[in-house]
Amino acid sequence: MSSLEVVWSDLVRHRQELSDFNLRSAFAEEADRFERFSAEMDGCLTLDYSRNRIQDKTLMLLENLMLQSGVAERYAEMKSGVAINNTEGRSVLHIALRGSVDDDLVVDGQAIAADVNAVKERLYAFAKGVRDGSIAAKDGKPFTDVVNIGIGGSDLGPHMVTAGLAAYHDGPRVHFVSNVDGAHMGDTLKVLDPARTLFLVASKTFTTQETMTNARAAKEWLVAALGDDAVGDHFAALSTNKEGVEGFGISTERMFEFWDWVGGRYSVWSAIGLPVMIAIGPEGFEEFLAGARSMDEHFETAPFRENLPMLLAALGLWYRNIWACPSVAVLPYDQRLEFFSAFLQQLDMESNGKRVRRDGSDILRASGPVIWGQSGTNGQHAFYQELHQGHDIIPCEFLVAAKPTDADQHQHELLLSNCFAQVEALAFGRTADEAKAQLEASGKSAEEVAALVPHKVFPGNRPTSLLFYDKLTPKMLGRLIALYEHKVFVQGVVWGVNSYDQWGVELGKELANKLAPAVKSAERGEGDPAILDRLKAYRAK
Ligand SMILES: O=P(O)(O)OC[C@H]1O[C@H](O)[C@H](O)[C@@H](O)[C@@H]1O
């Protein structure tokens, strides 16, 4: 057995040792659980992971798993520009986007920091111009609205961050259109004035069906109102595909490039972040980058027991592979992070939702779990029932700020108390004796008590981790995203997958393009004839 397989079997055996583990008794017996199982970075972000089914030995074994899997070695390869995205022959260097000009990161023998900086300067100048009106609409007046047209990595990151930093917006309004469903573009344009609207076409490849369709629709809408010559002033492109951008009619002066070593789901730090720069300004965006950079440094230097991404990754592996938990709920108690779990779905599931290892061999164990969630307290009134009393154990990651950015203090205290209450209820539950005492105290008869007790028992012992931070600033959001990026990286290395390709998305895309003509005419064509027949019938109604 390889030394890595030995660690996996150590972990399986260790789970048996913990078969009677219960968070209630663990907390009763170990007054120091918070001290032992929490880590802080920069004095403003704490990961409290004390309410997990772990002991010191668990962490020792998980640390060994990281060592044996070669996490540090793979990270060194990544930083040195090795094409760790082996199926596409690409380096993976999104960390360079938040680095400094003095960094010596190299791709294909070329230093990249200077290029990164040059594009960033152009982006900042453009964002500033749009914000102060010096980059204006066709009529010379400032833009009031910016529409980002993109999908996947060219939408989820900037959309989530723009919403997350709403307290810092002081530029034009920013909208996001992603879905090929014409209703998305239609509903967005309905409230906009073409004379005041700037479109950003965001697409790494500049070939994605949804984005190109929406971009053409936007162009038609604009041209119909303002004429052909408005396109130059009212469009800009964020892409790696110069020919595609020019072909669409956007000049290279209005194109902001990035590079094939930036994966779509890791691209919010690049030109894809332009909507955020326009919304909060370049200074705010610099803070956002600085937050991510501080997480990079933390990840590179903090010892395992203090290393937030390592710990989050380790706990994820523990539950996914040793406890067979199929999903993880991400629950930000922050309305402005309402798109955070949707963003993480792409980051995590597109990266590690794989069935073969880098060399094409079978992984032989479960890889990326289903990531899902919603902002608190909304989720409490929807799916928390299942978290508390459902059949599956669903580890939860809660996120909450100590202080509101600009919201009411009293309401923020209620938000915090809801978050802490959930964490406590999931961990400690309610025993049958407690349920009985409560029902008796409420005056129920003995029969009623007996009938209701089973329904009122909360098993507890449900694992949660809490990311507790001072305030949701641009810097903090940068830290949080980079934290999850590194977590995904670590897990990908342990599972041995290529976290930077996404072949699984391709088949559906190919088939959609193939079926488009058949759907258009609703005639029998390629694909499932029965459903096309039904389509024809419904259309004829
Ligand atoms: O930016 P684009 O080239 O338009 O790609 C947008 C998205 O397309 C696909 O769905 C990929 O799976 C995503 O990773 C990517 O972010």
From TrEMBL:
UniProt KW Cytoplasm keyword: yes
Pfam families tied to this protein: PGI (PF00342)
Domain of life: Bacteria
Gene Ontology BP annotations: gluconeogenesis; glucose 6-phosphate metabolic process; glycolytic process
Reactions this protein catalyses: alpha-D-glucose 6-phosphate = beta-D-fructose 6-phosphate
Location of the active site: 350, 381, 509
Enzyme Commission number, as recorded: 5.3.1.9
Pathway the protein contributes to: Carbohydrate biosynthesis; gluconeogenesis; Carbohydrate degradation; glycolysis; D-glyceraldehyde 3-phosphate and glycerone phosphate from D-glucose: step 2/4
Chief location: cytoplasm
Cellular component per GO, a single term: cytosol
Location(s) in or outside the cell: Cytoplasm
Gene Ontology molecular function terms on file: carbohydrate derivative binding; glucose-6-phosphate isomerase activity; monosaccharide binding
UniProt entry keywords in alphabetical sequence: Cytoplasm, Gluconeogenesis, Glycolysis, Isomerase
InterPro entries recorded: G6P_Isomerase (IPR001672), G6P_Isomerase_C (IPR023096), Phosphoglucose_isomerase_CS (IPR018189), SIS_dom_sf (IPR046348), SIS_PGI_1 (IPR035476), SIS_PGI_2 (IPR035482)
Protein family membership: Belongs to the GPI family.
Role noted for this protein: Catalyzes the reversible isomerization of glucose-6-phosphate to fructose-6-phosphate.
Identification of the protein by name: Glucose-6-phosphate isomerase
Organism: Cohaesibacter marisflavi
Gene: pgi
